[in-house]
Amino acid sequence: MRKFHLVVFAVLALLCSAAQAIQPEPVVLKGAGEEVVLGDRMQILEDPESHWSLDQVRNQFASRFRNSDTSALNFGFTDSTIWLRFSVDATDADGSWFLVERYPILDELTLYVPDGDGGFDEFPVGDTRPFSLRPMDHRAFVFSLNTENGGETEYYLKLRGKGALNMMPMLYSAKGLVEYTYVEQLIQGLFYGSLVIMLVYNLMLFLSLRDNVHLHFVMFLGGIIFFNITVSGYGLQFLWPETPKINEYFWLATYVIAMSLALYTRQFLQLAQRFPRYDRLLRHYLIMIGVAFLLQWVLQPPYSYHLSTLVALMTVVLFSWLGWTVWRQGFHVARLYVLAWSVFLLTVFLFAIGNLGLMPYHVIVPYLPHIGALWVVVMLSLALGDRIRFLENERKQLALEAQQNLERHLSDIEQMNQDKSMFLQYISHELNTPINWIGAADSLGSHNGEDSDVDVWAMVRKGQKRLIGIVGTSLRYFDISDRNQPPPVGSCQPMWMLDALVREHSDRIEQSGLTLRNRISPNLRVRASESELREVFAMALDNALRFSAEGGSIEMVSEVDVAEGFAHLVIRDEGKGATADQLEHIMEPFFVMGSRHHEEGFGLSLAMARVMVEQVGGQLWAESPGPGRGFSLHLRLPLAEYSGAGAE
């Protein structure tokens, strides 16, 4: 018996709760102002099989309605039919009131209004239905409520669709609806007007400048405009009112935006020239976009919507990362690009996840693409101007560098002309000398004396030797000067190299009565080509011996700058010396101190030595206090390793 009482009590409790659920709390319009948020005042019923009739919903399944707990209703992607119920108490209402659903891309929305005879009138609307079915010519779904007769009225809404089911239902008075429509159309007019102006402006820039970056921006703006007029309901209201099926292809704008964004990015950031690796990445991205575009025609909703949303999310991640990476790698023109796309792609991301039901739906969600588009239009306009300024500065820099290179080349050409003139002058003299000798030998050869024959042949051999010498030395100099790479270097010991040369010239030194002191440290090691450094030392020692007075002295010393990593070698004599003007040209090819009428030297030894030293990272120069006061040849060579004193 007790068990029976418990069962009866439970049944009565369920009946009471069902009766409470059946009765929605009415929205009292008295003193409600000009607008009322309706979402959290409604009751919700889900029909998983999508075949219940209004009578079944009102009677058989009435107890299954549940109260809404949010003003923005978000049901996501679902195959179910959603029923909504709300009650309005218009006893003290003043004037007409309207139900407004502000989310304009619902596939099917039907309002059931009591007709006063126990039945209901149906008002089927939706973006898959012709615009002419709407009771009011408005981009949103606007229904007039029965408030003239007062009293309490119960309404039903039937909602279904292939896309995301989101709602933001509101109740407006006539005055409130007019003000809402006026403000919204003003904002939308400014938005679309800005986009169209920027589209036309960039189209004119493209036609004028023929710069494809403006054409890609025009494509992007076209995609943005098509997407927004589709999802905002203006397309169905003004452009294709009797062809609502066009609304189902709003996802086309996603691919137009993604493709134009990729092309714009490649050219704006100059990826092919500056970042080839990222350019290859974008080419693969474009291939992926093409494959997804083909799949989009095959997949059925909601999977096709999921795919376009996935493309949008991938675009958010890719281009945000790409712009930031290029900026960090020093391409400063990307800073406005990063700022523009980061905010725009963030708004697209929030709009996408809001439609997917992954975050609470808010009244601002439908306007996120508008906010992002306006932001990107402004920032990219600034970015294009910044890019033009950057390219202009870069062009000026390149022009300046080209001018400097041209001036340098002209200077080199002028120097080459001077060298050529000097070389021709030198060669003409050097060839003339042995020719004169040969002429003199010929005149001497007309006499038949034996002594004269010996003199003739000696003169001929001397001319031949000099001709061979000048040709060989000149070829050697030009070969060294024109090589592209320096010779192989190693560790060399200057003291021992000079010591060996001194021993080779010992007889000559002894005959001249010269005193020679080698004070270079035996521990000093420099980096140079051993064979060429020996050749430089040989030239320096030969010049010192040749121009030193009999009984004079020659000194060789060294100093080490460990901090700089260089050794300083000096070969100093007490010979003829040189004037300041001679020192200025002494390292030039074919320059000869004094008269050219001499039998030894070709004016190439010091020029050749300078080239050899400079090609291993050293320096060679000459100093002299003046004529008759001696001459010093200075070498500065990089250190290999060093231990010991700088001079001995």
TrEMBL record:
**Top-rank lineage group of the source organism:** Bacteria
Catalytic function, reaction form: ATP + protein L-histidine = ADP + protein N-phospho-L-histidine
In the UniProt record, does the keyword Coiled coil occur? Answer: yes
Q: SMART domains recorded for this chain?
A: HATPase_c
Q: Which InterPro entries match?
A: 7TMR_DISM_rcpt_extracell_dom1, 7TMR_DISM_rcpt_extracell_dom2, HATPase_C_sf, HATPase_dom, His_kinase_dom, HisK_dim/P_dom, HisK_dim/P_sf, Sig_transdc_His_kin-like_C
Report keywords, A-Z: Coiled coil, Kinase, Membrane, Phosphoprotein, Signal, Transferase, Transmembrane, Transmembrane helix
Give TM segment ranges: 190-209, 216-237, 249-269, 281-299, 305-324, 336-358, 364-385
Q: Which GO terms describe its cellular component?
A: plasma membrane
Question: Domain Histidine kinase: where?
Answer: 426-641
Q: What is its EC number?
A: 2.7.13.3
- Where does the UniProt annotation place the signal sequence? 1-21
This chain belongs to the protein called: histidine kinase
